[in-house]
Structure formats: structure tokens, C-alpha cells
Amino acid sequence: MKKHNPLLYPLHEAQRLGKSVYFNTMSAGLQLQRALLGMTGFYGFASKSYAETANNYLTASTEMSERFTKEYVKPDFNITHTDIGGKKVDVTEEVVIDNAFASLLHFKRDTKRNDPKLLIVAPMSGHFATLLRDTVKQMLPSHDVYITDWKDAREVPLSKGDFGLDDYISYVKEFITKIGTDTHVVAVCQPTVPTMAAVSRLAQEKSDCQPLSMTLMGGPVDTSAAPSDVTKLARTKPLSWFEENLIGKVPSTYAGAGRLVYPGFVQLFSFIAMHPDKHTDAHVEMFESLVKGDREKADKRKAFYDEYLAVCDLPAKFYLETVENVFIDQKLAKGTLTHEGEAVDPGAIRRTALFTIEGENDDISTPGQTTVAHRLCSGLAATQKYHHLQPGTGHYGIFNGRSWREEIAPRVTGFIRSTAAKAGVHYDEPNKAVVPPRFEEPAPDTPTTDDKSGFGKKRNKLAA
Q1: CA atoms of 456 and 369, how far apart (whole Å)
Q2: I need a surface site. Which of 30, 92, 178, 451 has the fewest CB within 10 A?
Q3: Contact 421, 369 (CB under 8 A)
Q4: Do 91 and 105 contact (CB within 8 A), yes or no?
Q5: Residues 6+ positions from 62 with CB-CB distance below 8 Å
Q6: pLDDT tens-digit map of 105-124
Q7: Which residues pair with 214 in a beta bridge?
Q8: Are the C-beta atoms of residues 120 and 79 closer than 8 Å to each other?
Q9: Positive or negative, the Cα torsion across 208, 209, 214, 219?
Q10: What's the pLDDT tens digit per position in 358-374?
């Protein structure tokens, strides 16, 4: 693969340098104004309260200017402890496997509790795995948690080779096998397809490390089942368009110099372009909170955007193969997906119970895309299949925020523990958990592409 947009990264680097110069100039001017404002003589011309308000305004302007121009680096998970039964338990990060493009990270709890081993498969879609910090924190009290910690492709030297969809599937297989028997897997968004493929291949190989359960959350299992703006773009453009317009070459200033990538800044622009008004309003509110001196409210907004604006590059091979195999051709749903030359057969899955979760207002992986997994996993009994549609929740809310903490996470915990119990695997007494309802697959001729058909309402009743 040699095609790419030769201007993509150079233009970005020039813009980044220009923003830095702009901020340094702007910051110096604002700091000078703040210094003049603080002079004693100033109060002869204005009241102290006015001076304080003006100072807050200048402080807010300085901070917002810095936020608009700074480069957001990979955040830390910063999970140092969890609460188990009202007791504070220390948590340390432990790298179990360190591969070229991802590490298997273990959140090791200082406890002897016997809890379900849980692998969270994070998306490789522009954000770091830390985007799932809230997902991890909520599962830690009742689970022994691992996560796929994907690396920024622009920092991976060319000598480490390339990385495609096959490699992603192999990584998931390797990580599951390393964690061992009786593992449970949760895949969030993009990795639902490669995770299903990995579990399918383990089943086809009759591996002893087939997971006890697999939870798929808001993912593109079959993008043709419920079209969105994302899937429409894939359908209207040839693969060559993505290659020629969205692929760039990492410049010499990074460890991965010369590597072809789908840059994180391009993906971030796509995310923001989907809801520009929402992000504009959020930053206006952040500025107003800073002016009013409401640091707590402003800090909550800042924490979110510190995470949201921290992006990483994807290997071009993986990105293009995902576009082609998942979004254009829907190969998993059509039964034509292969891994290392072998057919991927979800029908071979018999030991791994399935739980699908969708958000009613998800406009990235719209309701209907993930539930196709139940049809594909034809080897599972009805009592091994569960589904939950979260009312009023968008894509991000499936794995983060109040809906995740209060509604979805308890169901996942209940599903994992009830599944294990059926398999004869028992753990220590859990925190309170809600067991999900039995999934009832819709008839093959039931419309699934439009919630106005009433299918969405039917799923809501099933998930109630």
C-alpha cells in the first residue's frame, strides 16, 4: 500500500506550530493585562469587584486559549484504588504482555477475592484505552479486570512491522489465552467484530480458553442492518477514496517515521463534525464557569475534553481493512470473513454466552447493528443469549456516565456471574447485581433498519 495524502501530516504539523506561536503571543498579552489589573492604582478607576471579575475573565481567556492550542497527550488511567464491601483496596497497573501495537494491562487489586476475570477490549478508533476509565472503575469492585491498551501508531517504529485486522484478531486471541480459562470478555464499539472473530476462532480450534461470556456493546457487527451517517459514508465512497484522502505518512519527528497511518486528528475532526453545536456549547459553558469562578463545574468539563481531545494514530492497513471488511462488505455478517486464511464461523461458538447492549440514541453504531450477533451465533441456545437496549442513551453513554454505572454495568455483572454459575464456576459474594432478561430474537422478517417500525419499542420491552 503506497497511496496516501502527502499533505495531510505536513499541514497538521504546520498548523500545530502556528497555534503554538499564537498562544505564546496571546498568553503574554493576557498576562500583561492581568498584571496591570492587579496594580493598586487600578482600583482608583474601578471597583474591587469589577477588577476581580475582569481578572477572572482574563484568567479564563488565558486558560481557554491554552486549551485550544495545546497538544493533548495520552492520559493516565489514575486508578489507584477501588471500593470493595466498603473497604478501600489498592490497585496497581501491571503489564502482562507488551506487544508492538498493544499491551495487555492488568488492574491488579490488593485482595485475595475470587472474582470473574474480565478482559475489556478497547476500541482502536482514534482514542486511547483510557477513554474507558469509567468502564474499568465500575467493574473493578466485582471483577479482576484486564484491558487492551493500544499504542499510538506514530510512535511504533517501522521495524516492528505492519498491523492489520488479522493482527487485531490475533492479539485478542492471545490476550484471552494468556488470561486463561473461565475468562469473560467485554468489547466496546469497534472491537465487537474482531472480538467475535477471535472467540469464533477459539471455538473452532476447540481451545480450553474459550471465554465463558462475551458482551458486545454498541458495535458494527452488521452495518447494513441499521444505517447511520458513518455507514452511509462508507457506502458512497470507494476504498481508494479513503486511502488517498485520509491516510498520511508519519513525519521524521516521531518514532514511527515513515509509517502510513490514519491520523488521530482526522478521526477527532470527524467526531466533532458530527455534533459541532454540542461541542461549541460545552466550551462556552466551560468559559462561563471559569469567569464565574465555578472551578468545580469547569474542571468536570476540562476532564472530559482532556480525554476526548487526546487522540492516537491508527495503522493504515488496519483502518482500511476495517473500512472494507466491516463497513463496506459486512464480511462477518455475510459469513465471508477470514482470519489468517481460515473462515471465521460464529456458529461454532457454543460455550460462550452472549450479551448485546445498544443505546437507543446511538448515532455511531445505531440500534440493530449489534443484535445481529444473535443470528450469527446460531450454535448458542436461547438461554445463552441476552440483550439490553438502554433508553435515551447515546454511544458514549453506553460505557460511561450515569446510565453505564446505574443501569448497564449491573446488568453486565449479573450476566457474567449467572453465566459462570450455569457453567459450574462460582466466585466470592458479589456486590449487588441485576441479572439481565432473557433475549428473544426477532423473527427474520422483522424490520430492523428503522426504529419507527416499532422494533425499537419491542426491544425496549425485552430489556425492561
Answers
A1: 12
A2: 92
A3: no
A4: no
A5: 26, 27, 30, 31, 34
A6: 999 999 999 999 999 999 99
A7: 185, 354
A8: no
A9: negative
A10: 999 998 899 999 999 99
Q: Of 420, 387, 405, 407, nearest to 116 (Cα)?
A: 420
Query: Closest Cα to residue 215, out of 143, 167, 110?
Result: 143
Cell 475582569 sits on residue: 54
CA 278 to chain centre: 19
* 138 contacts: CB under 8 Å, gap ≥ 6: 404, 405, 409
* Torsional sign, CA 157, 338, 320, 377: negative
d(CA 183, CA 215) in angstroms, rounded, equals 12
Hunting for cell 435515551 — which residue is that?
Answer: 392
Spatial separation of the C-alpha atoms in residues 267 and 339, rounded to whole Å: 26
Cell numbers that stand for 41 in this block:
492604582
Distances (CA, A) of 174 to 96, 102, 135, 191: 11, 11, 22, 15
Determine which helix (DSSP H) or strand (DSSP E) holds 462, and give its type and residue range. helix 455-463
What are phi and psi for residue 388, nearest 5 degrees? -140, 130
**Crossing angle for the helix pair 264-274 and 276-292, nearest 10 degrees?**
90
How distant is the alpha carbon of residue 185 from its chain centre? 15
Cα 138–215–462 angle (5° rounding)? Answer: 100
Cell of 459: 426491544
Q: What is d(CA 190, CA 169) in angstroms, rounded to the nearest whole number? A: 12
From the DSSP assignment, how many helices (H) and strands (E) are in the chain?
16, 14
What does the block give as the cell for 317?
492497513
Count other Cβ atoms within 10 Å, centred on residue 309: 19
Return the C-alpha cell found at 394: 447515546
d(CA 176, CA 121): 10
- pTM, rounded to two decimals: 0.81
- Cα angle 199, 204, 205 (rounded to 5 degrees) comes to 95
Task: State which amino acid sits at residue 108.
Answer: K
pLDDT tens digits for 382-395?
A: 889 999 999 999 99
- What's the pLDDT at 461? 34
Strand pairing category for 338-339 and 342-343: antiparallel
Cα-based distances in Å from 412 to 135, 143, 416: 11, 11, 6
Residue 451 phi, psi (nearest 5) = -65, -15
Single-letter code of the amino acid located at 421: A
